[in-house]
Write a structure and sequence with these properties.
Elements: H1 4-7, H2 18-25, E1 29-33, E2 38-40, E3 48-54, E4 56-62, E5 68-75, E6 79-80, H3 82-87, E7 94-97, E8 101-107, H4 108-117, H5 119-152
Antiparallel strand pairs: 1-8, 2-7, 3-6, 3-8, 4-5, 4-7
Length: about 160
Amino acid sequence: MIDPKSLRDIHFFSDLNDEELNVVSKVLREKDFKIGTTVFKEGEDGQSLYVIKRGEVKACKETPEGDLLTLTLHKDGDIFGEMSFLDSRPRSATIVAIADTKVYVLEKTDFETLVDNHPRLIYKMLKSVVFNIHSIVRGMNARYLEMINYMWGRRR
């Protein structure tokens, strides 16, 4: 079991009270990835949500030539894998550790058990997931507008 106190300093769990941290700590498991290790590949089935305790990973898409193009970096306290975790569709990107990384892993089956038994806890966790997704979308929108302005000027 993971020490609930160790979750207190991670942003994803910051809204949870001590009792909720205790509940979550019982279903999380720790996993280590050495630098250069692929956590998962684009197109794989995904039933796990990852929370970075320590380290850094990059999210990549494969080019037609087979190279990995970095989309974004995730560091201490960030989450990844949330899209497939929630919608049960294949992974949308490849995740590679770019530093020795320790993560907490939440499996979908454990999450669904929490939904039934701790709905307020799930509300708080989903709020954090939605905030994360909104941050990604806002960043993409800003980059898209920068690209449009660069390509066609400010008239459009």
